[in-house]
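Lab notebook page, bench 4
Experiment: in silico fold of construct C2
Operator: M.H.
Input chain length: 540 residues
Purpose: comparison with the prior construct
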Amino acid sequence: AARGARRAAGGMSAAAGSAQDALERSRELQAAGQVEQALTAAKEALEQFRASGDQAGLAEALRCVVGAQIELLEVPPERVQQAVKEEAAKIKKSLPDGKVADALMHLAAAEVHLFKAESDQALKAATEAANALAKEGQYRHESAALQMVVNAQLMRSNGPKALAAANAGLSSAQKAGDRHAEGSAWLAVATARHVSGGEDAREAARRAAAMFSELGDRSSQAAGFLLSSRVALTKGDFQGASSSARDALAIALDTQNGPQAAAAAEALAEAQLADESVGRDVVLQEAERTLTAVEGIAAGSHFKGVAQAMGVVVLAHTAARGVDSALALVKRYIEDLRERGDRRGEVRMLHKLATMSPVPPEALNSAQAALALAQKIGDTSQEFAIKNTMTDIYVARGKIEKAPTRKLAMRALNDLAKALESQDADRFQDAAKYLDGFYTALRQEDIQAVMSSVIAKDPIQYMTFLKENGQALVDDKPAAAATGCTARGLAHEIMYFGFTSGGISYGPRYRINMAPYKRFNNETSTIGIVRLNDASDSWE
């Protein structure tokens, strides 16, 4: 009905209407996890728009094609990027839909940049698209562009700007009067609120879920439930987190969406492990049931969430059976995925082995194998994550010069110094937030050398600027008073996996020494004490 209304309102021809239907079908299939079918529909729409001379429609369809090709790794990212450039060069801006089409091409380009972890280029392309679409009064498309800005800002660790972009995207969607676009915008708002520490993130996620429920979009509704679960978990509402995760899991299984079922199972397992009233064997059994279901949904496909569901079983297995047993399970899964020909899943599991292994050489070998395979298949998204893990390993072994992210870290540090030299507060804050993700690849003397070269030009002026922008280089802050502080018990499995995500699990074998507790209502937190395995003495 919505498609018919849009077609009638725009005086759309039958051919254009057919192309629009194919495009809508592609989006629905993509949201439902049926990526291969989504790609077929998107290609159909692309060619129909091309035949009718609809430049804006072609650009919109191209973005769907690009998104599916990237997810399937059907075409190397570089070739996808080149294809977008070639199509963009054909746009005739002098035609009525030329400016809109050009802006939508920028969105397709931003899609590729995000996959390649090129956050600066993605941000530039998405921002330019949003500005151009706003001038053309294309509020629905502007909202989509701003949601891409949100993703780029989050990749750059800039929560406040991500939240500002999300709010702007919500406003644009509401101007457009498009309920589906508004639901997507609410999801972006919820994500940005959650990451930036803002209030009412769960309320925004629930609102999105309710909106998608009204529209009959069950996959997007499940995405709202899943985000609600993540927010509840960070707030310590373990039962609420479990409830929302179960809602998402039920929808995903019912709609045969394997990747979404695996993501929901992961959220459920994490919430259950944080809840001491839930037995570890119960968590493991539920994770195994979900893996069986996802394998049934996959039916031989390599892109249906099997490896991710295996990761959930590994998480629960570690809690229920211990690290040694879980390591053996990971190695078995690697062989299984290799035999299936699921190379992307194999990368995921090799990376997991690298983060879990207690033996530094084995951890490094696993990470290098994962990196080589990720590069071979063109999975730049996993490649970036693996390089971060390898950086942690090299830093721990005192070989920071070998850290794969060191060049990026030095580039980010130089950008910070340039922002300082120009005394551009906004640019400086952006650079400082982005640098947060690379500090492990820098020596203290690196920071001192680069920043001092600028400060030496005018010490008083630059030191004043640093203090005004929250970079206190001297210990002149008053001690914070801890008042109204509360503490709760924290399941040691959660503590362990917190270390895993932080890159500490590559090293010594983790052992719980004292029951961990987490402090709340304070700027700092302490969650417990760990004991290192004796074998670590020779290298730590």
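Observations: The first strand starts at residue 486 and ends at 489. The mean pLDDT is 85.
Next step: discuss at group meeting.
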